[in-house]
Give the backbone structure.
Amino acid sequence: MDEQLHLLTGAYALNALDDVERAAFERHALGDGQTRQEVRELSETAALLAAGAPAQAPPPQLKSDVMAAIRNTRQLPATGVAKDTGYATVPRASRRGWTTAGARPVPPRRRRLAAVLAAAAVVVLAAGGVGGWVLGQANRNSTLEQQLGAAQAQQHEFTEILGAADARLSTADVPGGGTVAVAWSVSADRAAVLARGMPALPAGKAYELWFITAAGAVPAGMLPEAAQGSAARVLQGRMDGATQVGITVEPAGGSKAPTTAPIVLQKL
Amino acid sequence: MRVPWLRAADPAPPTHEDLVRLVALGDEAAFGALYDALAPRVFGLVRRVVRDPAQSEEVTQEIFVEVWRQAARFDTDRGRAVSWILVMAHRRAVDRVRASQAQADRDLRQGVKEYRDSYDDVADTVEASLEAERVRRALETLTAPQREAIRLAYYGGYTHREVAEILKIPVGTVKTRIRDGMIRLRDKLEVS
């Protein structure tokens, strides 16, 4: 059967394999790049077949049930996904499609902060050029250790902001794609930016961060070059009464004053 | 305070991908919006595979809770958010059908007869969306045996071995029919 496993791409995409066959297919056939690519495409195709089933609004009560359920459901961190290997590396626990079972309720306030912190930590590590999957090898490589050290310092600063009693977080969409979350604390007098899915910039350009005060825009550092469009950064300097945080596109070395219109402007 | 280059945030409506990214940050309002946008498609698909209304509601709830849990693991490099959710939905629906005792006892022949009947009703009466129409046309370009095998597997929730049993043909034949048909669909629907 092994030599024919690659012929099961279609059946796999349609969920038409039993558990044993699926496991065999994932173990053997998905190691091959061509097969993996075919599975990815056929899975997208299978998703389109869903349009062949008539849409039907569920009973209104179901939405209340779902909303109540998620308030008691902890979100998973973004770790465990290797970006470049597609369906093959969905971790074993979630081998059955994207599904895993078992959620533990946590108190809402803690859950929310924990989610924010987890997101911050993940983005910080990505910003340092250290994907989660590389962490196991970090001790063999001093450059990685330095990056980790810097990432940990950033993470400490994030914690300072997000752990403050008056921590605030708001999110905004970026025109052209992406989401920016700005976190700040007046008592810590610091602010941070978490960006996801930001549009890629041409060579020599970068995103610059600004504190906006009554006197004008104060440079607050550059957003690190994005790994998969995600980046995080604690703004340089103190908030010092700033009323807004802005992001503009500037030459990679940064500008002393904004030279372009802000793509994001977030009120503090 | 006035900033010369101050300008309002872009009011463009968020895409499904935008919503998933916000859901990953714990945004319940974004989750509600995502639910409103996709629940009819998810529930429609689940009803089609699971059939029983009460079980379909349970499965739909499970699916959306999974979307909430796994939002941070959604990766735009791997496709559209709606595909991610519908793939997960189909998987859950199929798992439910296979786990359910009533379905385990089902007579495959009876199953396929019912399934064919219900499919024809649906094809006649539903006001097709643009995407549904595209899918219908693409399915029409398949050979009849390819189409039958894919419909049984996807909408019927049967394994390829069950499909072989229903159609009384070798498993190897079903395997290639499904794969050839899916590849043709992929090309017709321009999925790359």
